[in-house]
Structures are given as C-alpha cells and as structure tokens.
Amino acid sequence: MGIGLSEARAVLDDLPAELLSSANRLDAEEATRVLTEAGADAEVLRPEDRRPRGARLCYRSLPMTELPSVDDVRAAAERIAGRVHRTPVLRVEALDALAGAELWLKAENLQRIGAFKARGAMHAVGHLSEAERARGVITFSSGNHAQAVALAARSYGCAATIVMPTDAPRIKVAGVRALGGEVIFAGTTSDERRTVALELAEKSGAAVIQPFDHPQIVAGAGTATLELCDEVAERTGGEHLDALLVPVGGGGLIAGACIAAAPTGAEVYSVEPHGCDAMARSLEVGHRVPVPPGPTLADGLKPTMVGELNLEIARRHVKGSFRVDDAQLGDALVRLLVHGKVLVEPSGAAALAIALGGQLIAAMAQRGRSEPPRRIGVILSGGNVDPRLVARLLAEHPEPV
Ligand SMILES: Cc1ncc(COP(=O)(O)O)c(C=O)c1O
C-alpha cells in the first residue's frame, strides 16, 4: 500500500525517467524494492490504488534534507544563464514615497515570455538528459507556464506538447504555437488537463514539466530572488532587504524566494487574491487546504491547491500572508504604469499592491519590529496582460496620486 497522501508527495517527475519506467514494468512490491535500493524513499501503489485514472503514481515522504538549498538555486542560475534574461531591479521614487520605504522592484514582467516562469521551465528542461529530451516534454497549463515550457523546449531543441483548456485565451494558444509548441485541448479544469498530459506522457515517454510543485521549478524560480538580493547588496554596499513580498499561485515562486532570501535575513511575505488564498489558509492550519478559486483579475494566482513541496518550504520561512482585491490590483497596476512607465499583469501587481497599501509595515510592527522596514523587495512576476483590460483599468483608476 502507498503511504498516506497527507504525508506523501507525488514524485512522478522527481525520479530519473529510466528508473520510473523500469518501476512501471514491475509489480508494486518489486518496484518499491527497486526504488528503495536506488535511494528513493518510495512506495509504488498497486494499480487498483492509483489515482487519477491512467496516471503513473508513486509517493515518497519528503525528508527535510531533500528540500532545495540556496546552492541548488545558485546552480540553477548557472544552468539557465544566457537562456533567460537577468531582469532589471527598478526603483521608482514616486512609489517609494507612497509606500513609505524603498521599494526594490524585480521586473520579471521583462523576462522572456513575459514572466518569471521561463526560469523554472528552462531549469527543469535543462536538467533532463539528452535521451530524455529526445522523447520530448509535456505540460498542462492555461497560463504563463505553457509558454515557458514551449520556450525552454525550443531553446534545447526538443519537442513540447502543451495540454491547454478548450477555453484557453486565443492569445495564449497562439503564443505557445509561435514558440513551436504543439497544443492539445482537454476539458476546462486543471484535473482534466493533468490527466490527459500524464496519459500522453505514459504513451510517448515525454518528460512531464510540472508547473510549480517540483524542486527544479522551485530552484529555477528562486533565481529571480537571488538576483534581486545580490543586486541590492551590490547597490547598497553590502546591505540587505528587510522584507520581500511575493505573489502566490501554486507557491513555486515563493518557495524559491524563501530559499534564495534566507541567507540575507529578509522576511518573506505571501500575497494572494481574496478567495484564492490557498497558501494563507494552508499556512494557518499547517497542511494543504484546497480552495476552489474565486473570481480575481489575477489569473496566475488561482490554482486550487498549493504544491506540497512549496508549502513545506513556506511553513519554515514565510512570516505572514496578505490578501488583495481587484481594486488594489488595478490601482497598483495603474500606478506602476503611470509612475514607473512599467506594465505588469494583475498577478504581477499583487505584491506591489500590498507594499503601497502599507499593510506590510503595519504587520511588521505588529510582529514586534521597532523600526519600520527600510528596504522592501517586490516581485513583479509577469506582464502578460490583455491590452483591453489595461484600457479598462486606466479608465477605472484615472488619477493615481
Ligand atoms: C505572473 C505570475 N505571477 C505569479 C504566479 C504564481 O506562481 P506560483 O504558481 O509559482 O506561485 C504565476 C503563475 O503562473 C504567474 O503567471
């Protein structure tokens, strides 16, 4: 029997492909023995215990020693160097004045494909062996991760299949195709997409590139914070951020941020839309809580559940959680555009919204900090926004001061 889901994590993609495929040809008991001998703390489920239908699943507990470290993030930075941009860290005096602190804005909206997602995908695809890449990669996503995987596959010269919802925005479908990815449509829910992707992977042997709950995705995402922290130190003569605000969907970005920022002592805070607060609620109770996402402008921040690895890391590091509504997102997006001349998508404006609203300073004072934070890092996580939405938000927030 497999170990309980609450204390175990799917490792479908953590295991070397050869190991996994040999395990799949064996019966559950034999496969468990092979995996254990190979050093994985794993137990393979019998077919009747598998779920979802058709997926190859095995589970292993997550020893603390396996959490990615800052060295993993540094190694990821080396691996992806030259294949993704080192994005600028922006300072906007008008926004500092509103926030009452120095804001150090990491402009991942200017990253390739317009979002930090290029980092994790490039790292994960780069980690595969030549033989694995020859079988292609596959993912399931409706958003920035889809284009990120297509980009990474093109960069490494391998085929990418992206399973997208039938109602995916045409612009995102076109973006994947323009990068050479093959699009397969499957249902409208993330479960439907995931099941189809895993079935296709089983048939073709393609490697599944997870959107957020994977050590390589986390380490890749952490490179954005690593660059930010390094640049703050360079530009201030060795000083550090007091706090870092990070938007959260499945939690890969914040998990990487926690690991990368830990050596600097910066306190990490999560930001989610109201009604899509799976990380905040999971942190409150100490285990993953599914939250059927409510409506929000921040379409990158609405997975039903945060990643298990990501929660594990966040539980150890995150100091507090914030929630934003659409009015705050719109306001922050417009202020950044008007004052900073920088365009982000609503998900990318979430962390800035909290910095501008003063909630962080209040929360840090409540936690017993005597001095207000001087330097706040803000991850502007992406910039892929429908121009019609920008026009609407500009009309709704005409005079930001
Ligand atoms: C622009 C943007 N910001 C933030 C996130 C959240 O990232 P994560 O799922 O790693 O928490 C996403 C996820 O797709 C995104 O596209």
Structure description:
The protein has 401 residues and is α/β, with parallel strands linked by helices. It folds into 3 domains: 5-63, no CATH class; 70-115 and 215-396, Rossmann fold (3-Layer(aba) Sandwich); 118-208, 3-Layer(aba) Sandwich (Rossmann fold), CATH 3.40.50.1100. Helix content is 46%, strand content 13%. The chain has helices spanning 17-25, 28-37, 70-80, 93-99, 117-127, 130-134, 144-156, 170-178, 190-204, 215-236, 252-261, 278-285, 308-317, 326-340, 346-357, 359-366, 387-396, and strands spanning 9-10, 42-44, 58-60, 89-90, 102-107, 137-140, 160-164, 182-185, 207-208, 243-247, 267-273, 320-324, 375-380. The strands form 3 sheets. A 6-stranded mixed β-sheet has the order 4-5-13-10-11-12, sandwiched between helices. The chain is globular and about 60 Å long. The chain starts with 8 loop residues before the first strand and ends in a 5-residue tail after the last helix. The chain binds pyridoxal-5'-phosphate (PLP). Pyridoxal-5'-phosphate binds next to helix 7, helix 11 and helix 15.
Beta-sheet strand percentage?
5-15%
Q: What structural class do you assign from the helix and strand content?
A: alpha/beta
Radius of gyration: 21 Å
Count of helix runs = 17
Number of spatially distinct domains: 3
Terminal CA distance: 61 Å
Which structural traits does this protein have?
17 helices; six-stranded mixed β-sheet; alpha/beta; binds pyridoxal-5'-phosphate; Rossmann fold; disordered N terminus; globular; 13 strands; 3 domains; four-stranded parallel β-sheet; about 45% helix; about 15% strand; about 400 residues
